[in-house]
Amino acid sequence: MILTDADTRGWRTVRRYAVPAPMIHRATERRLAGDWRGACSAADVAVDLDLSRIKSRFGTTAAARVEQDLQHFAPDLLRWHLPRRPSTGHTALSPRRLSVLARYRDDLILVVGSPRTGYGRQQLRLFLAAEPLTSRPSQTHRDDSGHEPCTWHMAVDRDLPRHVWDARHAGELLSWYGLGPGPHDHLVGDLHDTERFVRAWAELGVDVPQRQVQINRHMALGFWYRLPEIVRAVRDAATTTPGQVVAGWRDQSYLSFTPAGGGRLAMDFYTYTPRDAYVPLERLGLPLDALLIHLGLIDPDHLHPLIHAALFPSATASPAGPPRPGRPSADPVRVRCGGAWHEVRWVGGRVHIPHSEQEQQRETMLVTFGGSRSGCFAAKTAMENGPAGLPRSPRNDTDFPDPWAATVSVTPAVPQAPPVRPARQARLPRRLTEQRRDLMRLALHGDTEGVVSLLDAGVSAHTRDHRGRTLLHFMAHLRDLTLLARLLAEGLDADGADVAGVTPLVAAAYGMGDLAVIRALIAAGARQDATVGSTGEPITAWLETARPDVFAAIADLQDSAAITARLHWRRQMAESARAHAAWLSRHP
Ligand SMILES: [Zn+2]
């Protein structure tokens, strides 16, 4: 495997936020108490399987085997290991993946599904499936079909090794790679420049044209592991398969090797998925955490305890786990404002600036007439009204399907509150940018304790992220009604939309939030006729088809606006279906 600098920086951030220490502690405590459902709940894994049904359909022995595995399932460890693409700057799980945990028979396979969207609630879903498992969701046959949330998967990770999810096997992490306890420093090669790259391969009898390296820089330059063993595996394969040998890492990159005379090989980058057999190099790697330790990017004390035990089998003390958010500095931030330095500080959960009410009103008026904010006003706006500009890319800056990306309403069926205008020119001082990023990453990964501790320390509850989302947009992730009540009491708007027009209720419902959160938002006055993205579909209409159980459970709260909007939507859909059928009949 090869890791670029962007990868390693990204993984450092992932290790800090993606599996919060309180989640590890709670899930471990439940697992050790024999409460595997409790462990799943603590690690936000929805359990969608019924042991008594397995028993009646597949027999007692099969059900017992499944149950025994579930007793040792460490959902927090699985979350630690599942694929992400942090080089894109995002810490979320890779969405829409189906991973096979255990295979009992071809029609009884234990799988876990990753979230439907990259930015929604980071909930995993544990269920049983049957072959054929395909990357085309409609063809994946489920044990009990008809459950919409399980049909969204676009990729299948076949048969994850046990050490990534089964606590009994977690200690096999190093042996899976054929390694013993560290140090592993001699296995890592720093091949960050073309010349060093070409020389390292040449010393092993493999010639790589410099030009190929320059063209494929992102595939070539970075940290490489175990180069001599890779070359040996390729040479072994070449003895049975004369000609080209393709080797590589699934979902990552492939290399092609051809004999070049005199016992040497010529290497090139192979940019397609190999059609035929290839030499898998997955096991010729190094556990990611061992590499991060080697690079000094993670403190061993911040590892997941099961990973720590696997990497340091002779250690006696248990690690603390991922670090908790630090107490943000209460010192004021100095901002250049109208030729002078002013101090911006937090007071009562809001950004306080040393300007009178009249001055602030005058500034607001200037902006209304097209002026731009500056100094203190800009800092306050950036923190509480969102980004220092529009989202970087109009498409999507996560590289993942994102329910809130590109959802600019064209013609909403029902009038909506105008979305927040991003403060285009507002520049946020660096310390405040970091505070904002910290708060929103904690929220994305469902670290409720972390969010509350930052709010207690004085960070503004009115903070908005780069897409104009407030903490209310993350209630599906945070799952805490006390926090929700606190945010509403602080004056956050239950209908405050982000730059794409998405309201907290839409985010919670569409982002697979719990029923309690959805009900609480409606009770707080969130409009039920708010719409989902560009289609203009009212959220209640979406719930009716996609999450019928939730729809039924909020029926008593429905208001007339929601009913009107839904009926209007259904009529529109029926009309366009009729028009489409008519068009088809005219154009057979
Ligand atoms: Zn000022």
Element layout with pairings:
Blueprint: E1 2-3, H1 5-17, H2 21-32, H3 36-42, E2 45-48, H4 51-58, H5 60-71, H6 75-81, E3 97-105, E4 108-113, E5 124-129, E6 155-157, H7 173-176, E7 188-191, H8 194-202, E8 206-207, H9 210-215, H10 217-220, E9 222-225, H11 227-240, E10 245-248, E11 254-259, E12 265-270, E13 279-280, H12 288-294, H13 305-311, E14 333-337, E15 340-347, E16 350-352, H14 357-368, H15 375-385, H16 430-444, H17 448-456, H18 475-478, H19 481-489, H20 504-510, H21 515-523, E17 531-532, E18 537-538, H22 539-546, H23 548-553, H24 560-586
Parallel strand pairs: 2-5, 3-6, 8-12, 10-13
Antiparallel strand pairs: 1-9, 3-4, 4-5, 7-9, 10-11, 11-12, 14-15, 15-16, 17-18
Helix pairs in contact: 2-3, 4-5, 16-17, 20-21
The protein binds zinc ion (ZN).
CATH class of the largest domain: Mainly Alpha
Helical segment count = 24
Bound molecules: zinc ion
Q: Report the end-to-end length measured between terminal Cα atoms.
A: 53 Å
Using only CA atoms, what is the Rg? 27 Å
CATH topology of the largest domain: Serine Threonine Protein Phosphatase 5, Tetratricopeptide repeat
What percentage of residues falls in helices of 4 or more residues? Answer: 25-40%
Mean pLDDT: 85
CATH superfamily (homologous) name of the largest domain = Ankyrin repeat-containing domain
Please identify the structural class as seen in this structure: alpha+beta
Beta-strand residue fraction: 5-15%
CATH architecture of the largest domain: Alpha Horseshoe
Give a count of the beta strands, DSSP E runs of length 2 or more.
18
InterPro entries: Ankyrin_rpt, Ankyrin_rpt-contain_sf
Pfam families: Ank_2
Keywords: ANK repeat
ANK repeats: 467-499
